[in-house]
Automatic annotation (TrEMBL):
The keyword Transferase applies. Transmembrane segments: none annotated. This is Rhodanese-related sulfurtransferase. SMART domains: RHOD. InterPro entries: GlpE_sulfurtransferase, Rhodanese-like_dom, Rhodanese-like_dom_sf. Residues 26-106 form the Rhodanese domain. It comes from the Bacteria. Keywords: Transferase. Pfam families: Rhodanese (PF00581). GO terms for molecular function: transferase activity.
Amino acid sequence: MKCLFFCKPKITKISTSELKEAYLPNKKGKYFLDVRTKPEFSSRSIPGFINSPLQTLTNHLNKIPKEKEVVVICQSGMRSSVACKLLKKAGYEKVTNVRGGMNHWV
């Protein structure tokens, strides 16, 4: 049964440890998205992540494949959470938020 009202979209949440141990070694079927600003991304980023700042994300949805799981990170987990909700509303099935973001990345 498809939920029409008052439903929270299903967004998977993972830790940075899970990202490092389970997601990054097996990139098949995944699209890695960093929604921080360009300067934040330029100063420090994880190899394999594509930068699309949250402010302009809706303009770049056509570049994000809907058939892949989209793994989203930001600095703390707040912008990536917003981005995940936006992606779900845009019809993306599998969306994963990295809790704690780059603040927790070692």
